[in-house]
Design the sequence.
């Protein structure tokens, strides 16, 4: 179902005229998303919404709800056997790994020699392998798709023929002829062998089985509905006649995957139930994933009516951060990239996660939410070429090296050595500005032969030669020197943004009031 029975989430009415402009707290001038005005960021992390395109899902999109995350090692779901002649299986998947010649089981039967439907890498081409019996199988080549993206897979049998549809369209590779009669399903996430070669790594959602072969029109409509083309609540339109089982993965906790039809509830086996229940396809717009200290549960939270994270922010099901966190502490498991490049900053090690909620209250700087690092915390990144970096961060204490973001031998560092703030460079030993704990390293630019910096928009600069390599984390360098302070925003550009410096800095300051 949608949020709060379809009433929308907190803040859904904050956008004025659909322009992505809203009025922040404190009567500050209207905020316009940075990524709308200054495009092509390599990665962007913030406690506020940075773009009108980075939209909270609508009520209809939120009907997609939650999803189930498989770890690719030994997770699977088992349910009572569903034995059919003609059938249609439809599911959405988001794969993290399809490597080498590995099979990745989506749905099938625990007994070898029955049906199974697999993702497979066939000589470098991702394909769907459908197997019926120990000998009969066929590889259906599917259009190229990226990892960590949602796709809809449909497999149907009519008489002796099996056909595969990918994102609503039939595969061009033909049909598998089956001579046997009854086919049985009883497992998600693997097939007969529970080994790494056969286990699905990624998310599954909206899994359904019919005891009939749906028409091509029905299959196309299923895709169009969930993909946002259709109208109304998706679950209602997902139920043509003869639906045998339908798992929406909206349970959110526990070890049961509920069948909406009431007969084939699945049992989760080997899952970490604190982290396996995740947002479904419509999780766009989440700012941060927070771990609750009392039980290690995690939830995504979206921006509120002021376009920022607050205790009024909700998850996909309409639960506010305030009601969920109670008086607990909260720690950042994922800080979502708003650039559209999916460079999410994540830390799964609970002992290294920075804090964002303390005893039920958001940690803040200048009355805005902040993420607090404590000399050990960090968030891991994939490679990002950060030639120009804008950020909002400050120290809480001096006395140690405080790395905000590390880039090879060059660190974007709020220095504690010598009682100053600066950027560490192995060639010149660093650059010290002053001893004001409230200073922000707000701008860093690397041109290939030199770098310059600006603290609190003061125009202070230095130069030096340095080879630049991709950023690998936020909050710590390779020698485990970590920041002791708070961070609110980091925006990386892979290009020189000197011409946009004034506008970007002004936009940041109008929101955070840092200078």
Sequence:
């Amino acid at each position: 179902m949608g949020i709060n029975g379809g009433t929308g989430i907190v803040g859904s009415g904050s956008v004025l005229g659909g322009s992505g402009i809203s009025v922040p707290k404190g009567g500050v001038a209207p905020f316009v998303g940075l990524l709308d005005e200054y495009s092509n960021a390599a990665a962007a992390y913030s406690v506020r919404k940075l773009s009108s395109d980075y939209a909270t899902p609508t009520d209809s999109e939120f009907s997609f709800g939650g999803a189930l995350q498989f770890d690719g090692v030994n997770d699977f779901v088992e349910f009572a056997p569903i034995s059919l002649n003609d059938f249609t299986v439809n599911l959405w998947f988001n794969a993290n790994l399809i490597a080498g010649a590995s099979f990745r089981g989506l749905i099938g039967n625990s007994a070898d020699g029955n049906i199974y439907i697999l993702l497979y890498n066939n000589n470098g081409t991702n394909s769907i392998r459908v197997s019926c019996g120990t000998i009969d199988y066929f590889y259906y080549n599917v259009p190229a798709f990226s990892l960590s993206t949602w796709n809809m897979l449909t497999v149907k049998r009519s008489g002796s023929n099996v056909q595969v549809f990918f994102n609503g369209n039939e595969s061009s590779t033909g049909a598998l002829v089956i001579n046997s009669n009854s086919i049985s399903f009883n497992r998600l996430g693997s097939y007969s062998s529970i080994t790494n070669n056969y286990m699905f790594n990624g998310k599954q959602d909206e899994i359904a089985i019919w005891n009939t072969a749906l028409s091509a029109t029905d299959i196309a409509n299923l895709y169009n509905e969930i993909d946002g083309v259709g109208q109304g609540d998706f679950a209602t339109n997902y139920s043509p006649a003869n639906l045998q089982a339908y798992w929406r993965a909206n349970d959110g906790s526990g070890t049961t995957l509920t069948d909406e039809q009431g007969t084939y509830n699945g049992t989760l086996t080997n899952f970490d139930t604190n982290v396996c229940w995740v947002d479904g396809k419509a999780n766009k717009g989440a700012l941060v994933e927070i771990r609750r200290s009392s039980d290690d549960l995690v939830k995504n939270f979206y921006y509120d009516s002021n376009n920022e994270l607050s205790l009024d922010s909700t998850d996909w099901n309409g639960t506010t951060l305030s009601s969920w966190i109670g008086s607990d502490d909260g720690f950042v498991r994922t800080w979502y990239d708003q650039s559209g490049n999916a460079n999410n900053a994540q830390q799964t090690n609970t002992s290294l996660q920075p804090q964002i909620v303390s005893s039920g209250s958001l940690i803040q700087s200048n009355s805005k939410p902040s993420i607090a690092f404590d000399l050990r915390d960090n968030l891991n990144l994939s490679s990002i070429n950060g030639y120009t970096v804008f950020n909002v961060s400050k120290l809480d204490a001096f006395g140690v090296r405080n790395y905000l973001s590390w880039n090879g031998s060059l660190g974007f560092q709020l220095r504690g050595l010598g009682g100053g703030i600066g950027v560490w460079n192995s060639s010149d030993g660093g650059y010290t500005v002053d001893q004001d704990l409230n200073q922000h390293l707000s701008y860093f630019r690397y041109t290939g032969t030199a770098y310059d910096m600006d603290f609190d928009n003061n125009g202070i600069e230095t130069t030096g030669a340095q080879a630049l390599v991709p950023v690998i984390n936020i909050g710590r360098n390779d020698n485990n020197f970590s920041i002791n302070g708070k961070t609110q925003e980091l925006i990386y550009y892979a290009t020189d943004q000197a011409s946009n410096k004034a506008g970007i800095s002004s936009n940041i300051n109008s929101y955070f009031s840092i200078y």
